[in-house]
Design brief:
Blueprint lengths: L6 H18 L17 H9 L3 H6 L10
Length: about 70
Amino acid sequence: MASNVGTIDRIARVVIGLVLIAYAMPLGFPQTGWNWVGWIGVVPLATGIFGTCPLYSLLGLSTCPMKRA
């Protein structure tokens, strides 16, 4: 699968994913009944690590700069 996530987008996804997962555990966040929602952070973390977003592929979007030959 081709990369469709640019560098800044990847960094933002990894940071957001880690913060959400920290909220789920809760590391540095108060314990609430909604901490399980933080596990949604796995999605942006995975797309940031692998550099491919399935939703971007479906919509034909890309934040990755064009590579010239």
